[in-house]
Specification:
Elements lengths: L3 E4 L2 E3 L5 E7 L8 E7 L6 E7 L4 E4 L7 E6 L4 E6 L8 E8 L13 E2 L3 E5 L2
Length: 124
């Protein structure tokens, strides 16, 4: 079973940037769908971005489109989430998740493997 470890979270002022990493225990290319989710206190888990590994297509959530970018380094088995123009509303725990079959669905319940999360706080 694949294991995922997130890192790179922290505190940043509005307008700042962070890059999150998700290190997988298996080659990224062997995972069907890999996604970033986030969850703020008292709110439901929200899809940030969902990568279809085979088609190399990425779906971005409406609230982050144009500000966040997913990339991957296959040599390091690592997925990245570059977050620019951060807003206080981006604050939350960010999780990496993997799904072992297609299609790549958007519902968090369709993902079977989760990392432990990394906290992102955006405030002045």
């Amino acid at each position: 079973q694949v294991q995922l470890v997130e890192s790179g979270g922290g505190s940043v002022e509005p307008g700042g940037s962070l890059r999150l990493s998700c290190a997988a225990s298996v080659p990224i290319t062997s995972i069907h769908c890999i996604a970033w989710f986030r969850q703020a206190p008292g709110k439901e888990r929200e899809l940030v971005a969902n990568l279809n590994v085979r088609e190399r297509g990425t779906y971005y959530g409406y609230s982050v489109k144009g500000r966040f970018t997913v990339s991957q380094d296959n040599a390091k088995n690592t997925l990245y989430l570059q977050m620019n123009s951060l807003e206080p509303e981006d604050t939350g725990m960010y999780y990496c998740a993997a799904r072992d079959s297609y299609p790549c669905l958007l519902d968090p319940s369709s993902f079977s493997t989760w990392g432990q999360g990394t906290q992102v706080t955006v405030s002045s």
